[in-house]
Amino acid sequence: MDKLNRFASVLALSAFFMSPTSFAAGGGAALEPAKIDPDNINSLQRGAANFMNYCSGCHSAEYVRFNTIGKDLELSEEMLVDNLMFNAEKTFETIQSAMPAEQAAVWYGKAPPDLSLMARAKGADYVYNFLKGFYIEEGSPTGVNNLVLAGTSMPHVLWELQGYQKAIFDHHENADGSVTTTFKEWEQLSEGELDTKDYDEFVRDTVNFLAYIAEPMRSDRRKLGVWVLMYLLFFLIIARMLKKQIWKDVK
Q: How far, CA to CA in Å, does 238 sit from each of 109, 224, 247?
């Protein structure tokens, strides 16, 4: 992976979900289901690569360690070092942003948020639609706006993959003279490196990884929960059999 080129392309990924000003037209579209699969190891592996290439330049994930990622995603230490650990030396370290927080605060007014719990705080569907929801808008400081988070200061850093699109809105004048604006459809202005299906998969894998790091113990917790339920069911059967045996002679 070309770390320098990737870092240059993600340097602006510092204002994820920060919205200092709301200037987009109202009436965003309903959230499309992300349809992530936290048990899909291949998807999580791809999502980890996407995160490190496109997000870690500006965002940290300080609540998860590389060795935990390696264990859960079935990655060897060598694979971690070669493909994911761009700015870390030891596998017990957490994911740190390559951008100094002090400089980021000066450049953007606020340091980029840690993304460890973003999928839990906002929801996977929200993050999925946010990454798909950028559109060209004249007058915006970044040249784009976002259908999910109006006025976001985050530029469209994935434009090379998705291309640029225009949001088409319907404007309805109400009886009181106010105007209601609702999203209608997308118009593709330029093609990206990925077609729509592949870009959706790219975003889905990335969101899948974000959902994983928000709760790394999910898989173990679910497995433990199955055994606990089986244990309780077994002793429920034993208890009912014992009750029948004890009370069988009672009329």
A: 63, 21, 14
- pLDDT tens for the chain, 251 residues long, are 444 344 444 444 444 444 443 333 444 568 999 999 999 999 999 999 999 999 888 888 999 999 999 999 999 999 999 989 988 889 999 998 877 777 777 676 677 788 999 999 999 999 999 999 999 999 888 899 999 999 887 889 899 999 999 999 998 988 888 998 899 999 999 999 999 999 999 999 999 999 999 998 877 777 788 889 998 999 899 998 888 888 877 76
pTM for this entry? 0.77
Q: Which amino acid is at 39?
A: D
Angle at which helix 124-132 crosses helix 196-214, to 10 degrees, equals: 140
CB–CB of 99/118 below 8 Å?
no
How far is the CA of 32 from the CAs of 109, 125, 129, 181, 241, in angstroms?
31, 7, 7, 19, 49
In 94-178, DSSP assigns E strands to 94-95, 134-136, 144-146, 165-173
Q: Do residues 74 and 41 touch, judged by C-beta distance below 8 A?
A: yes
Closest CA to 28 of 138, 167, 162, 158: 167
Rounded distance, CA 70 to CA 222, Å? 19
